[in-house]
């Protein structure tokens, strides 16, 4: 599935420029690290907000998707929702938005750890035995790699990254650090909540990949989920952002191939198919002693899905919204 003519890094330039140039309006704080990299604080010391989160959501999507905010009718008590769409969902969601780049610096209590998302992932390479390959194995399947003279990466963290970690990002992207923009969105912030929930389409694409559905058959997609109320406690804030998708997220995928494949995908996609479904994510996380990797990976998916087989015109629906569980998460 060669998509080499598409540059997610070039596509996000106007979005990153807006975030930086309209920092005061968007209530974000822009600074420079000693190595020259630009840092955008969207919720640590700066208040940030919903609009900053919307723009950051589009940056995460590599400029190949739209994120909007509107009132909907799916939740009586939480009607304000995030809407996403991409006509290039595989590259947008998996090739950019997915938080697949594991980054760390230091050891012990002072160690810094983050999962990087956004267009920088598509540029990051490693060299082994003289052979240059992408940092993430996923890009082999996508048959995609980007090149650009600047990049941006989004980190869902609540403190400034060490300059050494940003140096690693710049080196992997084969750029001078001055050409790197690092965007910080704490989970407990308004911007952080919006940018996480804007992954409602991405989690569906990631689960489809895990289910071994042919990615080249996914040709379009859209989704929505409610804006979660922020919470100062990290675990509860993370729980709410996940629950917005697990209990009230909706996705519509348009796929090529047989109707049987489309029906099977629809039936297997909803979050309710997971063994860990049935309680707010913060409770599930606590039961696993806060070990994220013990949580069933199949849980991370929308509550309700529609899959349309474009070759036959048939559509298949599965899953359901759960207002009771959403209220348990958002209302506590």
UniProtKB/TrEMBL annotation:
Signal peptide: none annotated. Pathway: One-carbon metabolism; formaldehyde degradation; formate from formaldehyde (H(4)MPT route): step 3/5. It is an enzyme of class 3 (hydrolase). The keyword Cytoplasm applies. It catalyses: 5,10-methenyl-5,6,7,8-tetrahydromethanopterin + H2O = N(5)-formyl-5,6,7,8-tetrahydromethanopterin + H(+). Pfam families: MCH (PF02289). GO terms for molecular function: methenyltetrahydromethanopterin cyclohydrolase activity. Its main location: cytoplasm. It is found in: Cytoplasm. The keyword Cytoplasm applies. Its EC number is 3.5.4.27. GO terms for cellular component: cytoplasm. One of its GO terms (biological process) is formaldehyde catabolic process. Keywords: Cytoplasm, Hydrolase, One-carbon metabolism. Belongs to the MCH family. Catalyzes the hydrolysis of methenyl-H(4)MPT(+) to 5-formyl-H(4)MPT. This is Methenyltetrahydromethanopterin cyclohydrolase. It comes from Methylogaea oryzae.
């Amino acid at each position: 599935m060669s998509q080499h003519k598409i540059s997610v890094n070039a596509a996000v330039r106007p979005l990153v420029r807006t975030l930086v140039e309209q920092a005061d309006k968007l209530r974000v704080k822009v600074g420079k690290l000693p190595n020259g990299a630009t840092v955008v604080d969207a919720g640590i010391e700066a208040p940030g907000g919903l609009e900053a989160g919307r723009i950051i959501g589009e940056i995460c999507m590599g400029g190949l998707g739209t994120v909007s905010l509107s009132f909907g009718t799916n939740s009586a008590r939480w009607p304000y929702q995030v809407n996403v769409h991409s006509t290039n969902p595989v590259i947008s969601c998996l090739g950019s938005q997915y938080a697949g780049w594991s980054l760390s610096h230091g050891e012990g209590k002072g160690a810094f750890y983050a999962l990087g998302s956004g267009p920088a992932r598509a540029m990051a390479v490693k060299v082994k035995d003289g052979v240059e390959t992408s940092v993430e194995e996923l890009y082999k399947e996508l048959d995609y790699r980007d090149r650009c003279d600047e990049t941006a990466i989004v980190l869902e963290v609540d403190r400034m990254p060490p300059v050494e970690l940003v140096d690693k990002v710049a080196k992997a992207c084969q750029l001078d650090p001055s050409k790197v923009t690092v965007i910080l969105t704490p989970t407990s912030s308004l911007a952080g909540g919006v940018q996480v929930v804007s992954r409602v389409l991405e989690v569906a694409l990631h689960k489809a990949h895990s289910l071994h559905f042919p990615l080249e058959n996914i040709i379009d997609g859209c989704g929505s989920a409610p804006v979660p109320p922020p919470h100062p406690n990290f675990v509860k804030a993370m729980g709410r952002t996940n629950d917005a998708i697990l209990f009230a997220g909706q996705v519509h995928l348009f796929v090529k191939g047989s109707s049987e494949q489309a029906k099977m995908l629809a039936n297997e996609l909803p979050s309710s198919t997971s063994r860990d479904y049935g309680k707010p994510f913060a409770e599930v996380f606590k039961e696993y002693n806060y070990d994220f990797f013990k949580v069933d990976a199949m849980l991370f998916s929308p509550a309700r899905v529609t899959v349309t087989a474009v070759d036959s015109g048939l559509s298949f629906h599965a899953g359901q919204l759960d207002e009771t569980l959403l209220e348990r998460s958002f209302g506590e």
